[in-house]
Structures
1.
Amino acid sequence: MEFFLRQVFLRKYRRAIALIISALLGLGTALTLPALSSEKAVNPVQLEQQGREFYEAGQLGAAAKAWQEAANAYEAAGDRERMTESLLNRATVQQALGLYPKSCQTILQAYGVNDLNCQGLIAKTDPLERQLEKEISQDTPISSLQPLAEAPASPNKATALLRLGDFFRQRNDLKLSREVLLLSLETAEQLNSPQAESAVLLSLGNTARAIANREQAQFPPPTVALDVALNQQSSVEAALAPYQKAIDYYEQSATRSQLPQTRIQAQLNYLSLLVDIDQFWQQATAEAIESASKSTIDDPIFRAEIVGSSQKLQSKLERDIRQKTRALTAQIQPQLDQSSLSRAAVYNRINFAQNLIRLEGATPNVVQLLATAAKDARTLKNSPAQAQALGLLGQVYEQNGQLLEAQKLTEEALRLAPASENPEIAYLWERQLGRILNAEGDTQGAIAAYDVAFNTIQALRSDLAATTSVEPIYREFVSLLLQSDPDQQNLNKARRVLESLQIAEIDNFFRDPCSTTASELVQIDDVDRQAAVIYPIILSDRIEVIFALPGQDLRHYQTRIDKREVEDAIEQLRSQALSDPQFPERLRGARGNPQQQQSLQKDLQQTLDQDILPLANQMYNWLLAPVEADLAKSGVKTLVFVLDGVLRNIPMALLYDGQEYLIEKDYNVALSLGLQLTAPQPLTRQSIKVLAAGVTRELPQLGLPPIPKVEQELKLIKQIFADSEVLLDEEFTKLKLQEVLEESTFPVVHLATHGRFSSTPERTFIVSGDKPGNDLINVKDLENLLRAGSPDRSIPIELLVLSACNTAEGDNQAILGLAGVAVRAGARSTLATLWGANDEATAELMGYFYRNLATTTQANKAKALRDAQLALLKAPGSQYKHPYYWSPFVLVGNWL
């Protein structure tokens, strides 16, 4: 079908399309600002009107400025209501530009909330799922907005709450977004304003959709599919259930709207949701079927049941969702055809075309929609909207292999909306241009286009919406820079992009682009002349590695391998390494029986030889084998890995060269989020003082067992460093931790407690000894606690130790949480575990680690950790020989 459509498209419509392009790219496309009075507007009504004209013309920056000036003029005239309205218009424009933090600040300004900025507003949120379920307490952002909360019902109040709800959704504070939007809906209902209700219901649908996406993402897609297929009889209703709330809101919004464009927008959002659901379930069921086909389950009947049920679900969902999308499409198309000329109508056509591209591919209808949108935008003199339509039209031609036409359209989009004026959309078209040029064989032109896109993103970093994903652009750029034999210029550029990718991932984790970075990359020679830095990146068809030795040119090597194969190998290695063999317990049970002990040792070695060492050797061959000889000659003592994706799930100390582990090869090992984030400095040689806090009790409500060896661990730290302070169990509360950190300086903060780090802040926390209900310290609270005493802290936290079960357990972004907390709180390094470590082994390792720091004058943190791990690995009786015990401990950040 796709081939047939493409042939029809190419034959029947080529001439018509050529005429469309000719018209769209003609000299008539030159745009000017809307015709305004040559005299500077001096009264607020004039300024307000200018704002509207600029907005319709797509000159959003100018519109924001005009509305700010109108607000200032209204304030001077004593008209507070019109001042507020102008500021809310400005906030709306800022959100249209993706500048959500600035829009929040404008809303606070509108309601005179002068003692709290948006960061302070966010700090009052508690994103832990359990605590979000509570009723809103007195200490919430809503209670902080008294001027707004106490204001009488008005259109301005409904709009302000609506925009705040949008802001919190972009910050991923989804339940708070819902609460604020429900207040906005209540206000709109008090005003008996169906149009205001429709706008809020549309936003509530978007928030409900984001909540459903987050809940769905807790489990791998095949697991979700198998649950519905096997446990819920392949029910379509069960598959759609997470999104039913969003669907209801979208339908209510469309029903209540009195304006055609708002009704169409609600229907378009519903359509895009259906397309998302369809694509998710097609992927999930396909992966479930593939997994079942490859499964080693001995029961062929059960395997057949899995495949059959998954196929049945796939078929039922495809039929149901496609039926719904066809019905919606049939409703939307005639409404668009009847739409009057307006900015909203132009963007609705563009939105509809985007959905049709995902549903049907590049069809003549899509081309006509985008051509009409571009023509109408030109009539409105709205160059950003025209650029959007032409850029998407370029994407359509790119998909059809008509690269010359695609290039012309994309270049015209960039001419109409250059990066200097519209950076928030221009970087997308620069990326598209780079992709097209690369397909045409113009590698240098493609690199230049991606370079502009990259630099535009860097300049926009603090303003991009938190949900904006720039990761694919960075990966495509690196792939392009390294695809042939790269010179030093391209290697250095690729290295910088990889560093920036690490920063972008931390920013996205925290939904806040505030990670402190250096303006330039630090030279290794200036940091540690005995350290090498390894930058691996997993691309779709290969692993690329950039290798940096002090005083030498960058090197580069690659392994051709499918990304899925890499991910499967790493998942398998992690699964084997984190499986608790309970070896010390089994050895103790065999005391006095040498034959049984020998048998246990033999079984352990067999497990290592069969399940772990081959995979660890494979990873060594990917990452280090090509430079093994150079490393041996270099005199390097420390290997610093800047890891990518699933590679973060495996401790690099576990890599195996066929004879010994990497940790046995006389190299210290550390992880870094990049030299732009890390400011490596030697460990300060003053008397080390540790703040050691821990919890021993079990938490049955979270399924967490007691960790009795924590008390021994903290006592040992106190013995080694007499000036240290210990907070155990009920003494360890958020308030007490803050008080102690504010009263004194501790170069080392050691937290021995249950913790869970995942790919989202909402599920990242450590456990304090406080009473249940107040005992979870979320990642944002932890960051704020560690900043206690800042910015006047003369001595930073040198080391944050998270000696806890389940620290960083989970997915490939979990380590961003623990490392990101340290980076943002000013701590130079973090020591944590990649999976739930054995209680006894952890206590022993921490003892070795701190003794190494205390007694060896030349020991840096990385060496102290390596020596401690070797002490476990080489322990008498080899009770900790399995990687489960010694390998999960990783040092992230400053390794000196």
Note: Residues 690-859 form a domain with the Rossmann fold fold (CATH 3.40.50.360).
2.
Amino acid sequence: MDMIRAFETLRMTDVEIVGGKNASIGEMIQGLAGAGVRVPGGFATTADAFRLFLQENQIEQKIGDRLSALDVSDVQALTEAGREIRGWVEQAALPAPLEQAIREAYAAMGEGGVEPDVAVRSSATAEDLPEASFAGQQETFLNVRGIEAVLRHVRLVFASLYNDRAISYRVHQGFSHSEVALSAGVQRMVRTDLGVSGVAFTLDTESGFRDAVFVTSSYGLGEMVVQGAVNPDEFFVYKPALGQGKKAVLRRTRGSKQKKMIYAPEGGVQTVDVAEDERAAFSLNDEDLTELARQCVTIENHYGRPMDIEWGKDGRDGLIYILQARPETVQSRAGRTLERFTLTGQGEVLVEGRAVGSRIGAGVVRVVKDLSQMSSVQDGDVLVADMTDPDWEPVMKRASAIVTNRGGRTCHAAIIAREMGIPAVVGTGNATRELESGQEVTVSCAEGDTGYVYAGRLDYDLDRVELDAMPPVGMKIMMNVASPDRAFSFAALPNEGVGLARVEFICSNVIGVHPRALLDYPDVPADVKAQIEEKTAGYASPRDFFREKLAEGVASIAAAFAPKPVIVRLSDFKSNEYAHLIGGPAYEPTEENPMIGFRGASRYRSEDFRDAFALECAAMKEVRDEMGLTNVQLMIPFVRTVDEGRRILEILREHGLVQGENGLKVIMMCEVPSNAILADQFLDLFDGFSIGSNDLTQLTLALDRDSGLVADMFDEQNEAVLALMGMAIRAAKAKGKYIGICGQGPSDHPALAQWLMDQGIDSVSLNPDSVLSTWLHLAGEQPGA
């Protein structure tokens, strides 16, 4: 009977011997070292050794009897039973053959007589099966040094099989307590206390998008990220770009990273504050991210399924190591039925944080300060806490939603919440201060990466769609997308690409600063300078901040829908909208009617704005050339004359965006009546038209669409508007050029979408919330149907 097994002798076929976690470590050491995946070595105790331990100490039957009568929904009884059983295990002696084997294996890990520092990890024999995550159900102990400490922590790991959360989790997952054994993994420490660490998933955890690696990262030992005790940095890395050797980092979000866990002088670990300059910087650079993502994709390919991976960067040698890997258990099991929650009610936003899942929940707030208050949570309550760890699992399932001050989207609590289908908003920073027990709230994770807690119980809709059962439609249905955060989930809807990607959302919500103020930095007013410095922390310069954030936003949308076309409309802010950005009032004129003023193409060719437009062009060139997202097409808004259109194409060429080069298409918004009237001449220059029904209606009927006084006359289906649309469609069809529509009209009026289809338009681009209804409407009313 083997008492221990060296990691390098293990494969995934040994799960019953050493549990899923340890078997996976051995599998990677044996199978992936040659592919550049670095995994620290060590050894694992066996399930036979654990069973011998229980038998020799005559506690196996006692444990079985104690658990058989337990109702795990009774939190008090669960706590008492768990404490008693753990006491029996911790006081028991290790069998002599096991103790001797551990002593010999640990001594062999030392170099030059130095006792190594190790992690002692738990690995349940039912752990990390594809159907259940078992995330964090048993304990991990870090910076354990010396044989007596190792032996003591092996017993503590054995006892952790009977943590309250582990007992409860096994019951809910349908596992018998007696069929689960524990293996202790003793693994050489990676010095992440001097570096950084975190968690990576080889898909987007919220949408299930498979072409990205999602990485969370923070300073120090990884338990802070895993436990949800810190708000980490978040990154998305695009897998196809990795394979092509292109720039692969899609998106970065800086976390607060206020604390880190390091070695304590007397052994074990301690938590300390992170220095201000480290908080302001990203914890990983692009080179490290690319290397980490490469190792993660190698692991995913080896296992043939999405994976949940803990990793660390050693602060001494600067290398990335994989600490453990398990199957991802939520999105990889999701079927082809799409559930879409849409908030329809409105309310005051009380707090916001990172969204876990894509659902909406509502209920009565229950602020819980520590585990002793868990019994106060009733079915349907909104659980609010500073942070939750897996110890909270028995009560989490009662909640309609969970809100925490601390934590990221890859911590154990987030994984459990996702698995249970409970919406959670983590890392709010202030939930326990702003929310009070007894008040009613709605928790929405249906609005992208940011989750919101609203006052009151708000109405919402839930649509379920069988994606494989969508009927055919006689034209392409594309989507209007503004938020990069929501692109991955929108891409799961039936679609033929993006007919309008709006950069204004990125410029206002992500960048938030007038581009000329960024160009003029530091020669700007003191208050503007301070705001710019806060916004651009972690970037080489304000100019780089603008280019990279715009490129990231566009790339996120382009990657989500690739290889389908993504038509990116370059900025179309009006002067009053630009004035609302940080630093904006100093650069913008006061116009009587900004709707027909300094906007669109006229702004691009203006001496006042040309340098700012050059930043936009640089971002688009980065997305297409450096990231390889050549499905991005460009669209020019509000072109008043043919000469202006010609001049804009020249400016694009000056900035390296050459029509036809590397497949680049340049589309023009058809939204000024002159565009339709002189359609032949405009289409000689551009690769197609996208009708902007909002502005075309405004300018055809001489209606200011911002004026409520004439709003009742605004009608995209007016005969004059339809006549101009018809002219544009016929001209494009005659020239074999693309013709679509991206205005609001077809989203609001299915009859208009039907008319456009009858006219032979190539595509309609709809708001995501109207894609399904309009699709089904058109499928039932196609010509000849």
Note: DSSP finds 30 helices and 30 strands in the chain.
